[in-house]
Amino acid sequence: MLLGLVDEEGHVLARERYLLGVQREPVQIVHELDSRLRYLAISAGLTWETVAGVGCSAAVMADVEKGIVLSAPNLLGPHRNVPFRDMLQAATGRPALIEMDAYAAALGEAWKGAGAGVDYFVYVVVGTGIGAGILMHGQVYRGWRGTAGEFGHTTIDPNGPLCNCGRYGCLEALAAGPAIALRAQGALLQGRRTIIAELAAGQEPNAEAVFEAARLGDQVAQEIVCQTAGYLGIGLANVLHLLNPQVIALGGGVIQGGADLLLDPIRRTVARQCGSWIDLEGTRIVLSTLGEDAGLLGVASLVWRSCEDQKP
Questions:
Q1: CA atoms of 160 and 171, how far apart (whole Å)
Q2: In this structure, are strands 54-58 and 120-126 parallel, antiparallel, or unpaired?
């Protein structure tokens, strides 16, 4: 969890990162958030009465308008249909809201990062999963049922590997962190010569080990990186054809860990895959600038926007 106090200018006044642990009872999570936030305010020299509201961004499927978390395995375990917003409001005594992580990160980048001043902006997060936040004139595009942006479950190769969603060939099953690790494991099982296992230091190989090996000239690792960039480039070309954004910003753990290896090959693949009507000179594919603060600033911007809307 990343907690922070953010003022209306977008300055992070205080922050704390902590491991959530194995406890997944919603009531206990909410009470811990409340107590930690109150302590954070005290440590920053602020009274709780000066806090305007509380926002929570997480990898969830949610009814944002009603404040209900429909499903969030990483946050709430098996619990479903949790009125998380109302629980936060009751515990903190402050207006609260919830937002899905990719949407919140897109809003944060649009407020203070790579999407500032951009009318048509897409933020893509590549980590253990792949998702996207789509903004049009600063507003989140959610789609009919609020699930727009499931970029990781667009089909790139119908004959590709099984995805955790139960379908085959999703972008997430080809280019997310676990997919990179699986390709490395496959190479090791095939007996290919590579230093990936050595760099993994006795652990299962992960994306970080693959990137490190690629930088050291390891051919197997470089092949995996090339494949990953190719899949991401095909996916982003589809985004450009479908949505025609001005800027696509890339973030998440995989991008942060391998940006020096991935960004240029991604751009080259996009250029090959795009039709001549796509303005590749004017369209920018860039790295996000806020890192893990993107989601924090995104929900903060929603809180402050809500405060403005409530002014007479």
A1: 9
A2: unpaired
pLDDT in tens, 27-73: 999 999 999 999 999 999 999 999 999 999 988 888 999 999 998 88
CA 34 to chain centre: 24
Residue 223 vs residues 208, 217, 219: alpha-carbon distances, Å: 15, 11, 6
The answer to whether 240 touches 283, Cβ cutoff 8 Å, is: yes
**Rounded to an integer, what distance in angstroms lies between the CA atom of residue 39 and that of residue 35?**
6
Mean pLDDT of the chain, nearest integer? 94
Mapped onto helix, strand or coil, the DSSP state of residue 98 is strand
The pLDDT score that the predictor gives to residue 146 is: 84
For the segment 154-183, what is each residue's pLDDT rounded down to a tens digit?
999 999 999 988 999 999 999 999 999 999
What are the tens digits of pLDDT across the range 139-159?
A: 999 998 888 999 999 999 999
Pairs from 29-33 (Cβ < 8 Å, separation ≥ 24): 29/75, 29/76, 30/84, 30/87, 30/88, 30/91, 31/91, 33/1, 33/3, 33/88, 33/91, 33/92
Terminal CA-CA length for the chain: 35
Rg of the chain's alpha carbons, rounded to an integer? Answer: 20
Residue-level pLDDT at 103: 95
Tell me the angle at which helices 207-215 and 177-189 cross, rounded to the nearest 10 degrees: 70
Distance (Å, whole) CA 188 – CA 304: 50
**120-125 mean pLDDT:** 97
Buried/exposed 297-307: b ≥16 CB within 10 Å, e otherwise: bbbbbbbbeee
Neighbours of 309 (CB within 10 A): 7
Structural domains of the chain, ranges and CATH numbers in brackets: 2-100 (3.30.420.40), 114-287 (3.30.420.40)
